[in-house]
Amino acid sequence: MEYNCWLQCIDPDCGATYSVFGAVYRCRECGSLLDVTHDIEALRARSASEWRHLFDDRYKRNTWPYGSGVWGKKEWVCPLVEDANIISFYEGGTNLFWASRLGQELGLGDLWIKQCGNSHTGSFKDLGMTVLVSAARQMVADGRRVRALACASTGDTSAALAAYCAAAGIPAIVFLPREKVSMAQLIQPITHGATVLSIDADFDGCMQIVQKVCEDQGIYLANSINSLRIEGQKTISVELVQQFDWEVPSFIIIPGGNLGNLSALGKGFLQMRDLGLIDVLPRIVCAQAERADPLYRSYRTGFKEYQPVEARPTLATAIQIGNPVSIQRAIQTLKTFEGSVEHATEEELANAAARADRTGMYNCPQTGVALAALEKLVARGEVGPRDRVVVISTAHGLKFTEFKIQYHQRRIEGADCRFANAPIELPNDLGAVQEAVEQQLASLAAT
After folding, report:
1. Domain ranges in the chain?
2. How far apart are CA 33 and CA 260, in angstroms?
């Protein structure tokens, strides 16, 4: 069976179509965003049971490229890319961690963390970038002009783009807001040989510049406005349901910045429903930092109004975005999934991340935003002990070591840092050490 896909305008009154291998990011007819559309009738030639068995048989195996969590669903993602042109680090296949201790503390019996940061470059961005860079390599193989790939980034996108481009042998150019990404995130694209442009602007300013640069210079845009990224990221939905033996959770909570991940999450569930693999949809909650919360503000109006905001500095630097590109897709997703939006203050996100860390996790600040949102939902009774809840952890905590250090040194302005755990400095004296140990054990026993 041959499968096909194409780019299509999301405006139902337009519906213009384009090749997935064209450098087209918005509809040339009406300016709306584009969506990768699949030949659903061809996909229905396989039954739901056959798709489940195929995906299970491929999952984390060594047959190239199907052991990848993304390319194991190739027919649903981008079937037009030839296997020889796929650039993959076997992304996906990340741990669905049963957070039993944290769940007990919150009064939940079925809490899980989808640890997307356990990936090659340490974030979920690998899932979309493998598709985009593979498509670019296919374009080069077909004789199309691709001089370089470029992105604006708050850190994680640049790391993923640089790594996949390095493997593909395609130049990468990244536009980063100066002094607004962690050192661990900055060093990743540098290490992979990307051209790193540190711009005196925020992410939204960098995004405006990179779109202009990519207009007519043979430079392919790699941000999530490029619909191919969404195709890889939507496999999060398929994979986590697969990990639950094809059962759908009650709630999914996901941090949102540029909002491509939110719309990708919804797209994966809708495709599974359309092909009969599932028959119910989860409730989706998007979590934003209070200092960069345009979607939350729109939600509070019932999505009747939307205005970009000027994002203020936040610990959750990866979602410090005031004018998200995928806002239209995100609002539609939340409407379809009876979703909601919550936000978190700096103190709330920092304490939520640290609280979860004390149960064995190691959370990035963006995951802290999602965990803080969960705490609020539980407190209001919107999520209960019988609900199966999945929090999407978007990046590895090791990329945000400075955030962890600041927290445990109580240097986060306006936050009580109630879970701070500073080292105890002692003299070289056995008695003093033994006394300190006993004091700590007694204190822990009391709690």
Report:
1. 46-447
2. 11
Residues 6 or more apart whose Cβ sits within 8 Å of residue 195:
148, 171, 172, 173, 174
Per-residue pLDDT of the chain (447 residues; tens, 9 = 90+): 789 999 999 999 999 999 999 899 999 999 999 999 999 999 999 999 999 999 999 999 999 999 999 999 999 999 999 999 999 999 999 999 999 999 999 999 999 999 999 999 999 999 999 999 999 999 999 999 999 999 998 889 999 999 999 999 999 999 998 888 888 888 999 999 999 999 999 888 999 999 999 987 789 999 988 999 999 999 999 999 999 999 999 999 999 999 999 999 999 999 999 999 999 999 999 999 999 999 999 999 999 999 999 999 999 999 999 999 899 999 999 999 999 999 999 999 999 999 999 999 999 999 999 999 999 999 999 999 999 999 999 999 999 999 999 999 999 999 999 999 999 999 999 999 999 999 999 988 987
- The dotted CATH code for 46-447 is 3.40.50.1100
Q: How many CB atoms lie within 10 A of CB 168?
A: 18
Structure-token match 């392919």, residue found: 220
